[in-house]
């Protein structure tokens, strides 16, 4: 028999052929990247929750002190043992043109209104068109300068809370929160 008719063995073929480019390394790099992103996301979300809890506790303590100063003391909802988060009504975003003679300026503002209980929430929800109309009137009468900074936002919240009391006097509103605020 001649050497030419002899079939090469698998070891001989492996030595002759160049090694195939492996796909294992890119796959491992991709999996490693995804795992690291997951770990970072978990760490960031857990650290965010741990910092938010003390702030919420401080706000609750401040509200309790405020209700005691205003005579709410033991007769208030919180002191009676109301359990659970406060009831809030989220208003749709407001986009209003601000009062400015030189240029068109717009503000987008979002609010949540905290109410004393389910009856107040139902009352506020029933009067939503009236509330939105009143808020739009108040907001569109402001200039950019009047809305600027902490003082401007505080003044705006005070005016809107007063307007809310006029629009829905039978609803017990405990707080007004600005949840989004952009001026363009």
Could you please describe the fold and organization of this structure?
It is elongated, with a radius of gyration of 32 Å. 53% of the residues lie in helices and 16% in strands. Strands 1, 2, 3 and 4 form a 4-stranded antiparallel sheet that branches. It is α+β, with helices and mostly antiparallel strands. About 12% of the residues have low confidence.
Structural topology:
Layout: H1 10-16, H2 24-69, E1 87-90, E2 94-97, E3 106-115, H3 118-126, H4 128-140, H5 144-147, H6 149-167, E4 173-183
Helix pairs in contact: 4-6
Q: Could you spell the SSE succession in H and E letters?
A: HHEEEHHHHE
Secondary-structure-derived class: alpha+beta
Q: What name does the CATH topology of the largest domain carry? A: Tetrahydropterin Synthase, Chain A
**CATH evolutionary superfamily of the largest domain:** Band 7 domain
Overall structural domain count: 2
Beta-strand content: 15-25%
The number of distinct β-strands equals 4
CATH architecture of the largest domain: 2-Layer Sandwich
How far apart lie the N and C ends?
91 Å
CATH hierarchy class name of the largest domain: Alpha Beta
Largest sheet: 4 strands, antiparallel
Total of DSSP H or I helical runs spanning 4+ residues: 6
Low-confidence stretches: 49-53, 65-81
- Mean pLDDT figure: 77
Classify the helix fraction into a percent range. 40-55%
From the spread of the alpha carbons, the general shape counts as elongated
Rg, nearest Å:
32 Å
